[in-house]
Automatic annotation (TrEMBL):
Membrane topology: Multi-pass membrane protein
Entry's localization field: Cell membrane; Membrane
NADH:quinone oxidoreductase/Mrp antiporter transmembrane domain span: 117-388
Superkingdom of the organism of origin: Bacteria
Ranges in coiled-coil conformation: none
Family: Belongs to the CPA3 antiporters (TC 2.A.63) subunit D family.
Pfam family, one: Proton_antipo_M
Keywords, in A-Z order: Cell membrane, Membrane, Transmembrane, Transmembrane helix
Transmembrane intervals: 6-23, 30-48, 68-88, 100-117, 123-140, 152-174, 186-206, 218-241, 253-275, 282-303, 309-333, 340-360, 380-401, 421-438, 450-467
The name this protein goes by in its record: NADH:quinone oxidoreductase/Mrp antiporter transmembrane domain-containing protein
Keyword hit for Cell membrane: yes
Amino acid sequence: MDELKWLLLSVPLLPWLLVLVKADGLGRWLLPLAAVPALLAAGFASGVTQDLPWVLLGLRWGLTDFVAQVWLGVSAWLWLCAGLYSVASVPPGSRHAWRFRVFFLLAMGGNFLLIVAQDMSSFFLGFAAMGLASYGLVVQQRSVTTSRAGRVYMVWTVLGEVALFAGMMLAMGVTGSHYFSQAAGVALPLEAVVLLTLGFGIKLALPGLHVWLPLAHGAAPPAVSALLSGVMVKAGILGLLRFLPTGAETTVWVAEILIGLGLFGAFYAVLLGLLQQAPKVILAYSTMSQLGLMSAFTGLVLLQTEVNAALVLALLWYMVHHALVKGALFLGVGVFKRNLAGWALGLLAVLALVLAGLPFTSGALAKAEIKAVLPADYEWLGAVLLVSTVATSLLMGRFVLSLQRYREQHRAHGHHEAAAVELLAWGLLLEGVFGWYWWVDMPRGEWVDFLPIILGVLLSVPLWWVARLPRVAAGDVPVWLAKLGYRARQRVQMTRCRVE
């Protein structure tokens, strides 16, 4: 048992300690290796807890529930694959290699910490470390575009963390404890619930709070986009489930709003994604759409008078499915842009269909499980899932067309073969996508489920001509409003100068 406690401690601490390693050639291989303790802990440290009473208010780490155990394993696998991919994509001796490794390991440790955290202080520490360190990953490719994306990302990240901290302080004042086990079930004041939802809602890219997401994904390297979309943004779901008591009056009020915003965002993101041209930005809006659905189902969990274990488990499988598939899509885009190979495009097309819910894949499994456990009053969400399958297929068709267009434009300029280690990383992640769900005893879809997929794909064919329309800037409406405000201020200043 002592060995398992040390293993648990190494989950977040080892990535942070490895930051101190200066050897550049060795340091890059530490990126995938740093995730190994988390992978082992997810498999062998179930039920293990470790108290650190001498740190801050007293910290408690552990894997006391199935959600944390599974999510830690999935997150560790994605971090391992992204780290392995980065070994070749960020070669030693480059100007940015050391900085990338430092921020990568800091973000990894923060992500692992918030998963194993059994107290509010540890969760906030991990959440803040992950969010702030990710800024250094977003701006790796130094340019005007990445700098702007980094500034927007940092503003929204800090705003979310301030809201989370304020909500956490109010919650601790009411519950009298910062341990989740002792605070569970205690109703929180509306102010605390709103602040906590705002903080986590920014991470979940709810409509109006999503500006940072398409900008960050468009600027970040493929491995970073895979991590942002695959595991980091879902810290918002984990936080809502950990902090908010189910069924409380104030929680119910906010949960209903969360359901409405989530469903609106699921289709709003598809509409805006269809007007994008860059493959990674299209995937970013797809992430926002899927997060909208997951946010709605999280709100549904919070509405229940007591924890609905079946609904939480179904939500977990949806998170696992999206994390692995979206991570594989982003890494695959990086591989494809290196070699422009037809086989890579074909695999990406298959992954796009899996994300939409292709029968007999993890996408169909996740959606079928959610439909099976919907409460009687919310069975209509099954029809929403069906429509979202068509919408996602439509957006993924647009994504594949954008890749084909990119291939046609750059084929004549030559290309570089993807490194073997990049292909290995992508292959490991693909193995996770197509292998994990065979071990889960759940429905895998029916042949009739092909119909919405086929409909979405057919509708996506005319979207080839949408590329001729003016492109909507990543960040969409809030970005337009910011530009209008900037122009208005310029006109006011010019008017003042003329008067003077």
